[in-house]
């Protein structure tokens, strides 16, 4: 080890202002910031106050001016439509400038919200960048969410304009988006003034006259516009993420801190250089897609891959390796689940052996705990470093990683390595004291958070403080539990709240419980996440029926499954539930979900001393055994 990592990490914490001012020098400012950090009005930290910039300029125009005009900025590779389309920096800049002009003609101005509900097509990236070009605020909603979830986000974000497409394409089925959007708009009082609809060849959406516009016609009519400078502290986007209730949290990211941190991270965490090819196999509806499909690769002058398809089934387990070979991908980022699905179909690595993966330098994994088996399989099969790294929608970029751009540290399976420069990670006990090395506690980040992390929650500063800052004063609460070992390696073991991680997708069991509780025959319910060999976790529902309800269990479960799919969306992957007589609770009435999960996953568990009636745990265990759990 050269000690480079130790040195840079120490510098970042000893003098954050100097550290981040240097990183800010890599960004093109319209007006340079007068300070690095302004912490004078808690709970909000303002990064680079006084600075003015435009995010889209830093992603596109800067590179066109600096000699990368003909280099590919974005390559769209769709396994589901068998299409490859490449956009040079000049082409992407021109498309974005025209579409921004079209949005401006619809009335979009600096500070307005534009919501996107789009599949993985280049127009989605063009839409996001066009919004940023106007100094407006985008809010992308993942395509796997149903109308009700979409409606909640529309109501809360109050977008002036919504961008959508006629359909998404899932293996074996075309998924019409427009009826979902129309149903969502019907439900809200904050109705958008306009919708812009990309008609895909697979499905034609009907347009509401006066409100809806055809994307292609509108884009063609747009007169290109330049970049609107905004204050560093103005919001770039709102991204809703699952909280512990049915109402998602609107994570707000600013323009300046985001640009500085993301550009720095792609180079120093991921080890990328301008001109290289980066592929984050995620979705623009998730934070990974925002940070590492759209923004960071473009800030650094890389080529970014936009992949529409799955790791398996579109058409086979060789899909990822074909993309790597075809576009000479230098670094790939995906979720452990995607690798597990490939490994399940190609454990011998035959597709891997058949592909030319000589361009591939590293594979990064995040989104859920990376199980050591899968990491070891990938290391063996791909013969490149496989880097587990840990972060959250809220932070926007990695909290802990093996920073290949600084110094490759030894890998320890099960650990995302060390806290990344800028993050002061502390593990605390329930009383807020630091726990000794090796002991599990609440993983927290000592304030201030580095640039690029959430600034607040949309229209809800008080909610931001109460959700993240109040439990441990002076620290940001990640809601993950884990420990540090003697080498300062972090081990992230579990969430401390009711959030579960299904196929790398963050979901709220509370939101599912809200849907189930609305069933007329259900008196009360609980949803827990149970371990699954492929998706990491799967939701499992327990329903206690009203005394008068005489229901066939299978029929009732089918209704619950259908209503969660209908209300939250297929991405919830809610497919199993059962009827129980009673739920185990503490004497104060809190459902013992943690104990139920341990029983289901056959982990060691103890009867909590606060339990109201211990016999209920035996009933639950019997039901879980019947379902094939608690072995
Ligand atoms: N639009 C509409 N529906 C979607 C969707 C989208 N964008 N994404 C997923 N869905 C649907 C799926 O079709 C599936 O429907 P089904 O119940 O009818 O089969 C359901 O939502 C559940 O999806 P998922 O849990 O993703 O399972 P899957 O079987 O479709 O795919 C994997 C499994 C492992 C291939 C896939 O989950 C995957 O690639 N995960 C990686 C996740 C990721 O990139 N996370 C980001 C962090 S890095
Ligand atoms: P999201 O906000 O969707 O990115 O989900 C963030 C959550 O996913 C974290 O709080 C963790 O619970 C989990 N997570 C993400 N990456 C990892 C990782 N590398 N190891 C363990 N858990 C992870």
Q: What's the topology here?
A:
Layout: H1 4-14, H2 16-24, E1 37-41, E2 44-47, E3 52-53, H3 55-68, E4 72-78, E5 83-88, H4 89-105, E6 113-117, H5 122-133, E7 137-140, H6 147-157, E8 161-165, E9 167-170, E10 173-176, H7 178-187, E11 194-198, E12 212-214, H8 215-221, E13 230-231, E14 235-241, E15 249-254, H9 256-268, E16 277-280, H10 287-299, E17 303-308, H11 319-327, E18 331-334, H12 336-345, H13 350-354, E19 362-365, H14 372-382, E20 386-388, E21 400-401, E22 418-419, E23 425-428, E24 441-446, E25 456-457, H15 461-469, E26 475-484, E27 490-495, E28 499-502, E29 505-508, H16 509-517, E30 522-532, E31 536-545, H17 553-567, E32 576-579, H18 593-600, H19 615-626
Parallel strand pairs: 4-17, 6-7, 6-8, 8-11, 11-12, 16-17, 16-18, 18-19, 19-20, 31-32
Antiparallel strand pairs: 1-2, 3-13, 4-5, 9-10, 14-15, 15-25, 21-22, 23-24, 24-26, 26-27, 28-29, 30-31
Helix pairs in contact: 1-2, 3-4, 3-5, 4-5, 4-8, 6-7, 9-10, 12-14
What does this structure look like?
This protein is of the alpha/beta class. The chain folds into 2 domains: 4-309 and 389-482, ANL, N-terminal domain (Rossmann fold), CATH 3.40.50.12780; 503-626, GMP Synthetase, Chain A, domain 3. 32% of the residues lie in helices and 25% in strands. The longest helix has 17 residues, at 89-105. The mean pLDDT is 97. Bound molecules: coenzyme A and adenosine monophosphate. The site of coenzyme A has 26 residues, from β9 and α12.
């Amino acid at each position: 080890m050269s000690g480079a990592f130790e040195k840079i990490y120490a510098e970042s914490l000893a003098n954050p202002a100097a550290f981040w001012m240097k990183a800010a020098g890599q960004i093109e400012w319209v007006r340079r910031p007068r300070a690095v950090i302004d912490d004078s009005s808690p709970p909000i930290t303002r990064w680079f106050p006084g600075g003015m910039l435009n995010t889209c300029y830093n992603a596109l125009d800067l590179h066109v001016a600096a000699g990368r005009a003909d280099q590919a900025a974005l390559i769209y590779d769709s396994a589901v439509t068998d299409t490859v389309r490449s956009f040079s920096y000049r082409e992407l800049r021109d498309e974005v400038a025209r579409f921004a002009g079209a949005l401006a003609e619809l009335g979009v101005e600096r500070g307005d919200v534009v919501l996107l509900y789009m599949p993985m097509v280049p127009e989605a990236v063009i839409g996001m960048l066009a919004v940023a070009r106007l100094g407006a605020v985008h809010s992308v909603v993942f395509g796997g969410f149903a109308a009700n979830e979409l409606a909640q986000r529309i109501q809360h974000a109050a977008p002036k304009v919504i961008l959508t497409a006629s359909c998404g394409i899932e293996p074996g089925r075309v998924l019409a988006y427009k009826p979902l959007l129309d149903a969502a708009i019907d439900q809200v009082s904050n109705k958008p003034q306009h919708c812009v609809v990309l008609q895909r060849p697979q499905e034609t959406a009907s347009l509401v006259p006066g409100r809806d516009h055809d994307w292609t016609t509108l884009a063609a009519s747009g007169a290109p516009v330049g970049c609107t400078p905004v204050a560093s502290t103005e919001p770039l986007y709102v991204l809703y993420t699952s909280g512990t209730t049915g109402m998602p949290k609107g994570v707000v990211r600013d323009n300046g801190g985001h640009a500085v941190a993301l550009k720095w991270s792609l180079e120093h965490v991921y080890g990328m250089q301008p001109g290289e090819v980066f592929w984050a196999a995620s979705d623009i509806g998730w934070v990974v897609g925002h940070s590492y499909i759209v923004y960071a690769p473009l800030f650094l002058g890389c080529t970014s891959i936009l992949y529409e398809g799955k790791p398996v089934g579109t058409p086979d387990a060789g899909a990822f390796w074909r993309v790597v070979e075809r576009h000479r991908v230098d670094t790939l980022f995906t979720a452990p689940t995607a690798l597990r699905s490939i490994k399940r179909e190609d454990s011998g690595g035959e597709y891997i052996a058949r592909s030319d993966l000589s361009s591939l330098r590293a594979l990064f994994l995040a989104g859920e705990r990376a199980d050591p088996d899968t990491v070891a399989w990938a290391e063996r099969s791909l013969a490149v470093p496989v880097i587990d790294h840990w972060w959250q929608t809220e932070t926007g970029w990695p909290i802990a990683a093996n920073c290949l751009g600084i110094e490759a540290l030894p890998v320890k399976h099960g650990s995302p390595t060390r806290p990344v420069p800028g993050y002061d990670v502390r593990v605390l006990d329930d009383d807020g004291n630091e726990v000794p090395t090796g002991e599990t506690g609440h993983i927290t980040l000592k304030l201030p958070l580095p640039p690029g992390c959430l600034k607040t929650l949309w229209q809800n500063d008080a909610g931001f403080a109460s959700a993240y800052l109040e439990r441990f004063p002076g620290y940001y609460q990640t809601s993950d539990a884990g420990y540090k070992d003697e080498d300062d390696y972090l081990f992230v073991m579990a969430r401390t709240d009711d959030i579960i991680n299904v196929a790398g997708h963050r979901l709220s069991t509370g939101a599912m419980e809200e849907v189930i509780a609305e069933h007329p025959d259900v008196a009360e319910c609980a949803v827990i996440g149970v371990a699954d060999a492929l998706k990491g976790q799967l939701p499992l529902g327990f329903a206690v029926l009203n005394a008068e309800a005489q229901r066939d269990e299978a029929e009732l479960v089918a209704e619950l499954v259908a209503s969660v799919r209908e209300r939250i969306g297929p991405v919830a992957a809610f497919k199993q539930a059962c009827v129980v007589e009673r739920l185990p609770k503490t004497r104060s009435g809190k459902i013992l979900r943690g104990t139920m999960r341990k029983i289901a996953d056959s982990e060691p568990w103890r009867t909590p001393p606060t339990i109201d009636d211990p016999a209920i745990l035996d009933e639950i265990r019997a039901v879980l055994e019947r379902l094939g759990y608690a072995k």
